Amino acid sequence: MDIHYNKGKLLELRRTLHQYPELSGKEYNTAKLIRDYLTPHQPDQMIDQLGGTGLAVIYEGEEAGPTVLFRCDLDALPIQETNTFPYRSKNDGVAHKCGHDGHMSIMAGLSEAISFHRPRRGRVVLLYQPSEENGQGALQVLEDERFRQISPDYVFALHNLPGYPAGSVVLKKGTFAAASKGMINKLYGMTSHAGEPENGRSPALAMSRIIDAFTHLPRQLALEDFALVTVIHARLGEIAFGTTPGYAEVMATLRSYSNSDMEQLTSRAVATVGGHCEKYGLDREISWVEVFPATVNDGDAVDLLRRVATTNKQHVIDMEESFRWSEDFSNFTERYPGALFGLGSGEHTPQLHNPDYDFPEEILDHGIKMFYGVYRHYLK
Fold first, then answer.
1. Virtual torsion, Cα 124, 154, 67, 343, nearest 10 deg
2. CATH of 7-175+295-379 given 3.30.470.30, 3.40.630.10, 3.30.360.10, 3.40.50.720
3. pTM to 2 decimals?
């Protein structure tokens, strides 16, 4: 397969991105670095500040055809890096510990390869998406009016995966990554003197029963597949021994392999909180954060990825069970046929979000080959 890109410059880009990571929604310098790097590849169009800090890079074919979108993520994590190599993060408390610097570099290599062999038909869109880590970026891009100019026919993305052989391609039809959402429950009662608790409305019992009910909730529903509710934080009153509490919070993560199960889980969780608040005379406020639908892969798109990997002589691993983590690329696969696949980053590398993780540069070529093979199938 004829793929041309400057590997030395690509490695330099990857390390520069690693040195200057930015958090979700603040990826201004990252987007500029990418734009400056891709400009010499002479794309037909660039759309800046898409969905906030995003960047869409577009190559047009001479003939009518499909629009194929490849997506990568711009943002880093609020983690202090412990690596000591020369290109370690220069931004205190921020680091690329999910490998998004590698994802961006793979797309940059793909851009250069496409510039040498431009599409014969259709359009290819390279989307550098902001705010993946907090689940907001994909929706922000999709809701940007300028995204209507793109309107893809197919969408593809990858994520590096520690624990799998370097360069291997990890595939699954159907749900690849779980749906999840953060639930924040605020319970409002009324304080009283601790010696006269009957004069107040303490949320203590409601809080404890909500926590217990959440733990068992998935087993009480007729669900299609795996589901889980994890209480991640709870708070009751203040440290004041003369006062009964009048306020409590319970935060939980709801997780499932199917979007329909998530609907059931959400409905029952809301009803559970409401029931206990009514029983104990409490007011309530429920809000949601970090909402990720399930990432559901199209079967034909997965078959194409398998053919590309086989042609590339890359090792294919078929997953039997979905991943429990979530990915906001799910917002794209809800609307357009496509797939998210895994790219093995080594069986003995640190796990994602660990302070010593570093994207392995030897797998850059494997990612570029996969994307380029998909590009050739649709547009060449």
1. 0
2. 3.40.630.10
3. 0.94
